[in-house]
Amino acid sequence: MEKVAGLISKDTVRWVSFIAQGRLKCLDVRPRKEFQIRHLYGSVNIPSTSIAGCWFQLPAKQEGFVVLEQDGTYIDDEEGDSCSEQLRQKGWKIEGSIRANTEFWQWIEQKGLIEQGESKRLLFEPSPHFKETIPVIEESLSKSEARALDIGCGSGRDLAWLCSRESKIRYKVTGVDAEKRAIYRFSSLFETLGYEDRIEHRQIAKMDPVGKWKCYNIEGKRDTNIPELSTLDLVKLFGTFSVTESSLQDEKYDLVVQIRFLHRLLLTQTDQLLCDNGFLFLCTFVNDGIHDYEYPKGQEHRLELGEAAQLVRSSSPSMKILKEEIGFIEDGRPVQVLLAQKQVNAP
Ligand SMILES: C[S@@+](CC[C@H](N)C(=O)[O-])C[C@H]1O[C@@H](n2cnc3c(N)ncnc32)[C@H](O)[C@@H]1O
């Protein structure tokens, strides 16, 4: 053991210890088959050849991480640099590179840090405010299976995180976004993680300024089979096509998420999306009167203080605001964090 350990650099020893404790992330860029045969406990595999389509799965650029690589793993064959160097040049904070050579695997095996098969860990983090709020929601959801809808879902990272957690609740998810690229990424993320069976629906759909939804097919073309829909009809579309009013309750959502997405009319329809005791989690840009920031520009994408709660309350007297705070995203921009519940049977 001493002999092999002597061949391992001090940096690698330190990084592996941090990775094993969950204090440092490790991206393994070897081919998937090799990762499945053996990998370092705590590491996450994105093969170098797939990284170019998976930037959104990497940690935030300001968060340092380690790359585990072997000779011959490049993102782009035309650039001669190693994968870790290429990532560094693209702006990621690479703490260092672990060379996956024979001595390394012998040492890792001796330390009992070898895993086999797939890994369901994530390199990215969800919205920190969402992460912080989920326990509050789950405490009150007295079911083992729940339906979650993310509107303006982007690549689906928050929903993927939701599914990845150890929880008493198994989530079935629906992602809606106006961009076909977003829905493509959403699908690829869930496929990579092996969570495809958690997807109820994924839909390219855009809510227009007057509150009508237009649906698009996977090529991004307007789906002429689906007329313009109200929000209630969109929910029905995602349920069965033959719902009766009395069964519609089951077609609604336990959790509706809107993160860095704002459509004021939609907030005034919140109760139409939620089942009894269902939750809305909103986290989007706000003019807090203190911080100046450039993007997103314009009133359309920024709330005023107190506005979100007012819009949500206007959807129904049963909507109760449980949390209304100003938070900040990684780059310091202020966001309105709101948690509301449809409390139908409240006294
Ligand atoms: C800033 S991104 C946020 C994505 C994701 N929620 C997140 O926090 O990473 C906003 C998303 O909302 C989508 N979007 C913007 N306007 C929309 C609309 N009117 N209807 C549906 N989606 C829209 C965009 O395509 C984009 O993916």
Automatic annotation (TrEMBL):
Keywords: Methyltransferase, Transferase. It comes from the Eukaryota. Residues 20-51 form the Rhodanese domain. GO terms for molecular function: methyltransferase activity. Pfam families: Methyltransf_23 (PF13489). SUPFAM superfamilies: Rhodanese/Cell cycle control phosphatase, S-adenosyl-L-methionine-dependent methyltransferases. Transmembrane segments: none annotated. GO terms for biological process: methylation. This is Methyltransferase with rhodanese domain.
